[in-house]
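A quick aside before the break. I want you to see a complete sequence-to-structure record at least once, exactly as it would be stored in a machine-readable document. Don't worry about memorizing anything.
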Amino acid sequence: MFRKLYLVLSLFVAASMLLAACGGGAATPAPEQPAATEAPTAAPATEAPAEPAATLVMWVDATKAPVFKQVADAFLAQYNVKVDIQITDFGQIRDKFQTAAPTGNGPDIIIVPHDQAGVLVANGLVAPLDLGDKKSAFLQPTLDAFTIDGKLYGMPYAVENVALFYNKDLVTDLPKTWEDLMAAGKKLQDDGKATYCLGFGSPDYHLFSLYTSFGGYIFGKDAQGNYNPQDVGLDSEGFIKAVQFLDENVKNGCLSSTIDGNTALKLFTDGKEPFFISGPWDLEAIKTAKVPYGMSTFPSNGAPFSGVQGFMLNAKSQNLLLAQSFLTEYIATDDVMAQLQTGGNRPSAYKPVFDKISDPDLLAFGQAGANSQPMPAIPAMGAVWANWGTAITLVFQGKQAPDAALQDAAKKIRDVIANPLTGMVNVPGSYQNQAGCGDGDAGNWKPDCAATAMKKSDDGKSYASGPFKLKAGDYEAKVALDGTWTTNYGVDGKAGGDNIKFSLKADGEVSFSYDPETHVLTVTIK
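That is the input. The structure line, written in tokens, reads:
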């Protein structure tokens, strides 16, 4: 069953030993075993544990880490290959990967939702996957989610969507419409049995089923059924009606004006909230609280978002063949996929496991997502999330009317789509060919190079990039915005000013920081 994986490991170890023998080597060969000797009479002989033949690095978020660490331990024991599970915040995996991968510092494998695949593929950061004869073992919709331009870029392992949780002690009749839901919640609130009518984690993803019930949409579709980034629906009539409905229920106290998923979860588990929209990630907390919960589909035939979790491979990985074999020959098996389903509370994307689901909660999630809409995986989706969430938050806080907030958000999204690099702050210069932007002169002075794009600080007051390892020499650079030369700053932050010069007397590292108020670039050399 694992013949291919054994072959890959054998080739990997052989190549590592050859490289070491030739004096090349970053790879470390497996140590030679000493010749058998007779054990001394004073004490029994013990063998030192073998060094791993290779190491794969995988980035996962904290909720998935425990089950993947178990899988990694089993893989190490069976194949003597270490899988280094590095915990990375779920919302930052893609962004951190986009910064690290071009420089060769990224992980071999990442686990991300399918809607993040589009931008990673567009930037050439992930490699196509060949599942071979295992392909037929996966649910076709989950494969479709990771297929871009006819190529498969991810191996799916789980499907997920939100469901409507309800407290059985408070709710006896499930609402057929959103108006019914709010009315039932309002009565409980007026009777002193509920703090709010409905809780949820975020105003965008979690409430998508409500927006669709009113006719709202994110992107329209073309004649082939593909999402059309030129048709943005955030300011459509249906979307505006949905947000007006939410606004009314904030103003009458049925919904909290403060959107806080943790608070909403606690209210539900404390029995002070009749309805709660969430997904598998909150299931254990709800079970632990022993709240008498049920799970339902959404009112008014609302369609939630569906997502597919999957593995993607770093296109620049030095262990690409080994990483793919690890996925297809070890992860894509009945036992491991069943373990991932149990540990993740998400229905498996793997047919042999999915077909045997009997857990009532997993079945309920499946029913709630029966008419779900896959999250758009096109790069343009990256422009949607922040603007969408901000618009709803402004409405909830009473700072903008629904139509104005959504129109502003939709305009910002359209502007970004017109120029996908809108918002990028970069430091193009004569050093970029050493920072992963390309070879020779062609790799320099590129304002759109993802490898040298600066990251915004948490307080939003500055940007930074690096450190980049550079050879001794003289260099020049300047700041460019939005991936073009249209807006650029040089010496002393002057618009269109002279190039900023810096020199390294010896090989070293260079970092950059940029003040968006003064437009001054600071160069730090180590």
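Two observations worth writing down. Residues 13-46 have pLDDT under 50 and may be disordered. The CA atoms of residues 17 and 23 lie 10 Å apart. We'll return to this after the break.
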